[in-house]
């Protein structure tokens, strides 16, 4: 049996390049936009503050700055990468000087440090001085490190952030606006990782289990609920002084929290699985598409929705299609997946097939859609040729008013639709 | 083109029956344990308190009681179903008497009501008196409703819960222990839905955005951060009285919270996507399995781990296999999925193939595994025949000490291994 040929090829070309050490030479599935990161995340080194500290200060290290979750860019569709010296005045000489244990012991909820994320290392970069080499027990990891840092002006770093942002603005570095759908695959993937983790930290400053403020650890990939808080000493001291003249030794201890005595998922970043599906009719010659009221006229896409607790992806596909369109789906096959960092989705793309007795459209269950319709494959093929665009943009020059419009190639919806009308559901082996 | 044949069959028989209206007649994929729910969740009715109230009191309605997340059972592997009258003394005459808007306005963080989950309706049940019929705008939904209710003794319902539990105990109804892996598919799926949602509510009594206590709404599928809290009036009144003799009108208003002005995922149940994968070697005749130290001797399974923010499932598979075993995976195909309610996982099962230059096992990156090894397909087929069992149980009578042991048929790991050694990676069309 020849190597690499034991699982047949997929019909679609990749839309994102696969540059990472883990997939550069090997991955052959549909790699959707926002995937295709060039980094090895070396997640097992995130708890090693000696590594993080060396990575932070290495000359090969790059920093992505964000403001209100938008990245600093050096031009249209191009991330700006900063050096340690550019941001030292905000993050300090070494935010990783302490071990996690020491950080937890010294926790002070009133001390605000800008949120940082360790993104990973680019192992395509090597050579003395050009890349960091770090040995952890017996293995050595070599590459150029990447971090993201939130420079939204606030708290005690407000003025310094504002100063830096003004300075960069003078050098032509601005913060992006909107949602990028035309960036290079590596830039899109790096930004996706940074954005999703910065957003998660920003949405979860308090412990959902006990309501107390939490501390970011593990290179930005975990939040922990410390047992003590130095700022309590200050507030308790103030209270004590107001009622007694002696000098007490106020406690810094916080109420107990269940997350301290076991592993709880509320401490870890959240990713919400969603399903997105191209549904074909029983005869295999029509595809179900829907539209939301706020979309441009004639614009349709695949149906989609959040997976619910305790259902399989296949069940979620059937439920969402039924809720939104009334169609009953039988067979479901998963096609490919796409990270979607707005704020934290994992889109699981599937192809489903309606059963003959379940093809009648009914928008009356959950009125989420403005319309849903069966489209002939031929009409869809024509729309893929002339009518695709990003949501805010015009269709191409050959597009004729009234014709079907569809999402761009960087959307997994486009990949699913394209797969289906180009033979995915033909009965031949496609995956 | 004949209907239903446009997407080829999967090689594996279902391990769970598909009883639901949405999949009963149609689903043909591998339906893993904990999927296969017989219910239509009718999620769009969860915000309709008139529906919930009617469902609660209908004679066809069943209640699953839990204590510390364990379900009440009427015998080994059999859920006990209660009626409204059995639990009325704890939940009250009608916990759904108010609309969500009214509940939020009347919010009092000191008032504890047992957590309830609306699971869905069984549409296989119909007929006057035997099933609830409810018309929402233009559609009518008919079936027997199902709820779960947490009867863990605590707060103001502690004594009544204890009394009921003792009474049921006398009738032979006990709470289960451990994790059931041998229940019927419908019972397992119903319990999975109940458990995951009860657990999520229990882990998230506070708003992660602002630290204030939250209110369960939407049939248990959402938590909201109310703008006022009646109990603040009481505490502020107490404080006010201690410092002044006049009678103030204390405010019940809480500090602002960002979740009140937009949609935030922290308000919705959390599901953590995980990857679990059978990895074959480049030649397609060996499979990679690993073991954890706490497992019985000779017991191996597929590798698995949590998906990280902003990576595709395919990337997560490559990263986890690299971290845990050092193996470099090229091609990845998703096989099937399994809900896993301990506490909130969605297991996404995949088959991956190592590249020829990446087959060397290295446990030194992230030392999670006690061992990882390549196994010949022949050895694995024999283990599937004689050496499978649940974790705490003995292998079958034909098993010989020293032979490979594997997880039971109800585990997705078993399904993946079985698929691979029975031809999934042979090049023939299997999905």
Count every beta strand of chain A, where a strand is a DSSP E run of 2 or more residues. 15
Q: What oligomeric state is this? A: homodimer
Helix and strand composition category of chain A: alpha+beta
Largest sheet of chain A: 7 strands, mixed
Radius of gyration of chain A: 25 Å
User: What gap, in angstroms, lies between the N and C termini of chain A?
Assistant: 18 Å
- β-strand amount of chain A: 15-25%
Largest interface: A-B, 106 and 107 residues
Order of helices and strands of chain A: HEEEHHEEEHEHEEHEEEHEEEHH
What share of residues of chain A is helical? 10-25%
Task: Identify the overall geometry of chain A.
Answer: globular
* Mean pLDDT over all positions of chain A: 89
How many DSSP H or I helices of chain A?
Answer: 9
Biased composition (Polar residues) (chains A, B): 12-21
GO biological process, one term (chains A, B): NAD+ catabolic process
Cofactor (chains A, B): Zn(2+); Mg(2+)
Keywords (chains A, B): Hydrolase, Magnesium, Metal-binding, NAD
Fold and architecture overview:
The first copy, chain A, has helices at 49-57, 84-91, 100-105, 158-170, 185-203, 230-243, 313-325, 377-386, 412-424; strands at residues 62-67, 70-75, 78-79, 116-122, 132-136, 139-150, 174-175, 215-217, 222-224, 272-280, 286-291, 303-306, 329-340, 345-354, 371-376. In chain A, strand 13 and strand 14 (345-354) form a beta hairpin. The first copy, chain A, is α+β, with helices and mostly antiparallel strands. In chain A, the strands form three sheets. In chain A, strands 1, 2, 3, 4, 5, 6 and 7 form a seven-stranded mixed sheet that branches. In chain A, strands 10, 11, 12, 13, 14 and 15 form a six-stranded mixed sheet that branches.
